[in-house]
Amino acid sequence: MIGAGVFGRHHLRILSRFEAVELAGVVDIDANRAAAAASEYGCPACGSIDQLAEGLDAAVVAVPTSAHAEVGCALLEDGVDVLMEKPIAIDVASGQRLVDTAARHGRILQVGHLERFNPAITALKKIIRLPLFFEIHRLSLPGPRSLDVDVVLDLMIHDLDIVLDLVGEMPEEIRAAGLSVLSDKVDIASVRLAFPGGCVANLTASRVSTDRVRKLRLFQPHQYISLDYQKQDTIAFTVSGNQQIGFQPLPVAKDEPLRLEVEAFLDAVRTRSRPRVPGEDGLRALGAARDIIAKIEVHSKLVAQRIQSLT
Fold first, then answer.
1. Nearest to 257 by CA among 228, 232, 227
2. Residue 158, Cα to own-chain centre: how many angstroms?
3. pLDDT tens readout for residues 135-145
4. With b meaning 16 or more CB within 10 Å and e meaning fewer, what string describes 130-157?
5. Which residues, in sequence order, are bridge partners of residue 133?
6. Residues 6+ apart with CB under 8 A from 276
7. Which residues have CB under 8 Å from 28's CB, separation 6+?
């Protein structure tokens, strides 16, 4: 386990429950944090990946996003399969470096887009046909987590990955606006994506909300679907030929998405199969996120010019 912060501790909790997994060590630049996590889960504590024992099969990386490429590539070059927390990297060039390194060394690279493993999303994918319109809200309470990146890379990227996976193409038009509130990064963002096939997606992400919301609404021909990520509920409203509306909760096998994500990674490591969220998918989501951030920067400059002209 590389990184013993909040996400790292969650991963350790899950990993410790798999009988086939032997925890070889916890790495963190904070020696006290590494020692505390290692003591709790009965494995060695290390200050750097160089101190890890040889013969590792796999590693989970949950370090600051800016260090993803450096840490991930070092592991991949040593023949270690990697589950990389999202986003795959801080920028597209770094993400591409990770993808290329994994391919060159024949290693598994899975990206931690957790919502792909949400049972509600699994249920949704069974009935998805032709998505035409998305309305998605992901709101969080103020806190110290992930303030080293914009809310687009911190929160919205989850929903970007889901939309790109369901639509199957990249957007041809992006409109975006955002504001900094808690940090020098964008803390709240509103985005509109338009796709070549006519689908439109509106996404809102905030880490300065009074409530925690994780909801997706989707329209496709003759059907409206409402999904709650937190409750793991998916409900479909279907319009029949005689204009009657049918209401149907979809069957959802509720489970912890992180457990399912780690389980899928371990299966890919054992079977040498393509992971469910490969590095290429993480790179695709990062590319869209970076395009959104660029649009927000353009909008912010326009707003600043407008304010200046009025003062």
1. 232
2. 4
3. 999 999 887 65
4. ebbebebbbbbeeeeebeebbbbbbbbb
5. 200, 219
6. 110, 116, 117, 264, 268
7. 2, 3, 4, 5, 8, 34, 37, 45, 47
Q: Which among 11, 103, 91 has a CA at the least distance from the CA of 59? A: 11
Spatial neighbors of 69 by CB under 8 A, at least 6 apart, are: 89, 90, 94, 95, 97, 98
Better pLDDT: 184 or 290 = 290
Starting at the edge strand that comes first in sequence, how are the strands of the sheet with 173-179 ordered? 173-179, 188-194, 200-206, 133-139, 213-220, 223-228, 233-239, 245-249
Mean pLDDT score across all residues of the chain: 94
Helix (H) or strand (E) holding 174: strand 173-179
Residue 147 has pLDDT above 70, yes or no: no
Torsion angle (degrees, nearest 10) of CA 157, 160, 162, 166 = -160
DSSP E strands in 180-297: the ranges are 188-194, 200-206, 213-220, 223-228, 233-239, 245-249
Q: One-letter amino acid identity for 12?
A: L
Per residue in 218-268, pLDDT tens?
999 999 999 999 999 999 999 887 777 888 999 999 999 999 999 999 999
Residue 281: partners with Cβ closer than 8 Å, 6 or more residues away: 111, 113, 161, 164, 165
Phi, psi of 267 (to 5 degrees): -65, -40
Q: pLDDT for 254-296, tens place per residue? A: 999 999 999 999 999 999 999 999 999 999 999 999 999 999 9
Q: What local confidence, expressed as pLDDT, does residue 87 receive? A: 96
Per-residue DSSP letter, 127: T
Nearest by Cα to 64 from 34, 93, 31, 29: 29
